[in-house]
């Protein structure tokens, strides 16, 4: 099978905000307790954080982590998780039917994020919480004033503010499963009042307002229109959430879900711009795709209630899951003119690329690799390409691709997935306006078995280096194996 990818130096989509490679830690399952935090583990630091996990997070250069939820945040009192740990209350946690010990709160999490090299994307409770709670949390985190909550932070041992600049106004508030579930009108009003208070306290923060919980919600579209009518002048982003699964065991259809993701993004962009036009606004609302992933392996699991840190939603990912994650990352890159923030949900143990054993090893799922390489090498300008290839089904191209130009490094990085389950692809690359390009590397993720998985004992699915020595000149050609993820780097 033949395909062609044309790249012209003058045609660009936009600059990538590195925060599209963000992730997510929620107080759920073993994400926190047994994931990032395990006092007594042989790698634990003085605060109880697993250094082996921190090293893997840093290996992927995760730039931002959303916290503390998720559904969890809609019943969370942030004051439970600050100050003397011996005095922190244990609470029943209704979102995930667990017991929250509050050993970890914002005091500790911001310290973990610093150690992991990540920015905090803080969510506030607009389910059972009120605008004043969000304002007080912001004062605690960011203010240097001689006032109650700033002084409370100082009393807890943190003289300098945390300086958190990215805030989510609640979570999935149109979902009936959400504590404090609201109508669009109810949420739009409370989000606007919360945003107003928060920006009075710290005008430098960026705010994310909740969009619909996913594309298939009956509220989708009308929710965004109503919420933005209330909040457009006060917020910077609107959120999107979407998970995909292969419950039908139809791999070709599953690998096409990134096309659906692209249509979802463009639909929300259209809604944002319709509100902009109606309001005669100058500012543009951008997108925060702050929950996305493959999630279906753990659907329907039954767990004992009111436990702390029990395994929950620990999907073991297959090679085909990694292929779709790679395609979804390319979709985010190709929409970087409007998608400025994104969070792979989640980071450790819970539907995650990084897994841990309690008291034991940390290991990498199949999905870690396309995520890591996108984060490391997908920084720069996304080029507007022309792709020519065959399609299947409902006009699904066999080739999924993105091209990133890093002008500082004088590099072009091509990410590509061959969706064909039967045929290798001969991909012709036409680079215009860059001069002579020299091949640097070709990294491939491939497995014969689409259902292959990794474990602590064996990295069955792992990247390998392939030979690019025969690929030279302005017109270049490279072979992509059937059902493979690839990263090609060229330098000029």
Structure overview:
With 492 residues, the protein is an alpha/beta fold. The protein has helices at 51-59, 106-116, 131-142, 148-155, 184-201, 222-231, 251-255, 257-279, 319-334, 368-377, and strands at 2-8, 12-15, 22-24, 64-67, 91-93, 98-100, 119-124, 166-169, 206-209, 237-244, 286-294, 339-345, 354-356, 362-364, 381-383, 386-388, 391-392, 396-397, 399-406, 411-418, 425-432, 438-445, 464-466, 475-480, 484-491. It folds into two domains: 2-9 and 383-491, Golgi alpha-mannosidase II (Immunoglobulin-like, Sandwich); 17-377, Glycosidases (TIM Barrel). It is globular, with a radius of gyration of 23 Å. It is built from ten helices and 25 strands. 50% of the residues are buried. The strands form six sheets. The chain has an eight-stranded parallel beta barrel with strand order 3-4-7-8-9-10-11-12, surrounded by six helices. Strands 2-15-19-20-25-22-23 form a seven-stranded antiparallel beta sheet, with helices on one face. The two termini are 28 Å apart.
